[in-house]
Amino acid sequence: MAEEYDLVVLGGGTGGYVAAIRASKLGLKVAIVEKQELGGTCLHRGCIPSKALLRSAEVFRQTKEAEDYGVTTNEPTLNFTKVQERKQSIVDTLHKGVQGLMKKGKIDVIEGFGRILGPSIFSPTAGTISVEMNNGEENEMIVPKNVLIATGSSPKSLPGLKVDGDLVMTSDEALNMKELPSSIIIVGGGVIGIEWASMLADFGIKVTVLEYLPHILPTEDQDISKEMLKQMKKKGVEIVTDAKVLSETLQKDNGVAIQAEVDGETVTYEAERMLVSVGRAANINNIGLENTDIEVENGFIQTNANYQTKESHIYAIGDVIGGMQLAHVASHEGIIAVEHMANNHPHPMNSDQVPTCIYSNPEVASVGLTEQQAKKQGYEVKVGKFPFQAIGKALVFGETDGFVKIIANKENDDLLGVHMIGPHVTDMISEAGLAKVLDATPWEIAESIHPHPTLSEAIGEAAMAVDGNQIHG
Ligand code: FAD
Q1: Which ligand 1 atom sits nearest the alpha carbon of residue 47?
Q2: Per the database record, which ranges form the FAD/NAD(P)-binding domain (predicted)?
């Protein structure tokens, strides 16, 4: 007899496990099917390990700069084995935490690969799930009332770029490098490519970024993308935009080579290793979509605002549905989906209120429309911009590059977007996120008192600068 559940979650990544916890708190009987490890990409191959490595790179760079702070040290040396061990111990700690949360929520974790078989006599709507068990035992059959597909995504490559996991890597392999190369080519100047470029440059590696589009970080406000270009160049990163990668990777004695068309010329780039960061594809293969009426467009599962697919008892959330491929988006979507299953009436998510962060040095954080998007949508805008150069705490930190930029609707003072580049901005963006949710005006942001000396004063100043009322600039 197949096991019965109110909800079976396919995939125990950030989206899946958070949804499972909320569902269990709502009184649903829940199981998670996970083929690898609870925590998914974010915990094992994404957010957490990459930020742990970025932090080691930051400490290495800052130690080199210690003399500027009146601290004399010997020339620092890097023990990359220790760097990797530190990263792994953070991941392991959090992994144990997620496993503990599953126990606490009485959520059954079934270790194996889940597949939707189609309607069953018990649950014609959500259908039966067959799990190919990791331990080799006979397939387990589950009959849930609802299914949540949260199978995430995997790195993509370009046709000629054959990823071998060693000379040519994606972020999956790069995170587990045993030693650092002396040089690297990064194909793709988006969020992941720039985080890696920043980290590897801070570790002292020669980095070349090849970006197909005219700008790195193409989805950010253009002022942010220009400032990041400047900051990367300052670190010694070679950034080549409008670069169309032409060739297959060529193996060289000491690494790899690749050709790209730049300004009408064919240029050859060589390095010891290559990292391909050109986007991520949804994990939809073999999960049984062909046994359902679920729609897929451009490789991503299609849903409505409650994350229901065309099969109303099968929901899908997170990277597998595309859009903003971020951990906090996946988990928020998961919560909305299970609230809907439980017949509550969740607020739909508004992408204009979702903060996005880049953890490079300097950091980037944004919420809402860019200036270019706002103008394209027909808004007449007013813009307040304030540099960290004029903020006392930034001088104290020794990190004065960057700015806060606030975009408002000229007609009614509505806050349209907030964009920041500089020190610790990823920890400051939530104020702007809250302002967006509460529909605050820049004037109201400025009314909220920003303590002195803090980096957040830059937000208050930028809010005042929208009407030319900034104090320190
Ligand atoms: P995933 O986390 O990918 O989880 C999907 C899970 O499903 C996996 O565990 C997988 O094993 C499992 N699975 C797949 N198919 C099946 C199946 N058929 N049966 C059973 N299990 C299955 N986002 C941020 O917000 N902040 C960051 O700083 C950040 N940094 C990142 C850095 C890197 C290098 C990368 C690659 C990504 C980063 N992201 C970041 C993105 C973030 O990791 C993803 O958006 C997030 O993990 C998506 O969550 P998810 O639950 O949709 O999928």
Answers
A1: 30
A2: 5-334
Element (H, E) at 114: strand 108-118
CA of 319 to the centre of ligand 1 (A): 7
Query: Residue 365 forms beta bridges with which residues?
Result: 357, 420
Q: Which of 17, 151, 172 most suits a substitution to test ligand 1, by most atoms within 8 Å of the C-beta?
A: 151
Ligand 1 atom having least distance to the Cα of 196: 34
Let me know: does 407 contact 445? Beta carbons within 8 Å: no
Integer CA distances (angstroms), 149 to 11, 36, 213, 321, 346, in order? 7, 15, 33, 9, 19
Task: Give residue 40 CA to ligand 1 midpoint distance, Å.
Answer: 5
452 included as an active-site residue: yes
Tens of pLDDT, residue by residue over 166-210, are: 999 999 999 999 999 999 999 999 999 999 999 999 999 999 999
List all residues 6 or more positions away from 122 whose beta carbon is below 8 Å from its beta carbon.
2, 4, 128, 143
**Using CB atoms within 10 A of its CB, is residue 311 exposed (0-12), middle (13-18) or buried (19+)?**
buried
Q: To which H or E segment does residue 53 belong?
A: helix 47-64
Q: pLDDT by residue (tens digit) across 124-138? A: 777 899 999 999 999
Q: Ligand 1 centre and the CA of 312: distance in Å?
A: 24
Q: What is the pLDDT of residues 199-255, one digit of tens each?
A: 999 999 999 999 999 999 999 999 999 999 999 999 999 999 999 998 777 777 789
- Ligand 1 atom nearest to 114, measured from its CA: 19
- CB under 6 Å to ligand 1: residues? 10-16, 33-36, 40-42, 45-47, 50, 113-114, 150-153, 171, 192, 283, 287, 318-320, 325-328, 330, 359
Burial class (CB in 10 A: 0-12, 13-18, 19+), 377: exposed
Nearest residue to 16 via CA among 34, 36, 35, 43:
34
Q: Which H or E element spans position 109?
A: strand 108-118
Residue 38 CA, closest ligand 1 atom number: 9
Read off the pLDDT of each residue in 258-273 and give the average, rounded to a whole number: 94
Among residues 43, 34, 152, which one has the least CA distance to residue 88?
43
Question: Please, what is the end-to-end C-alpha distance for the chain in angstroms?
Answer: 72
Cα–Cα distance for residue pair 299/283, rounded to 1 Å: 9
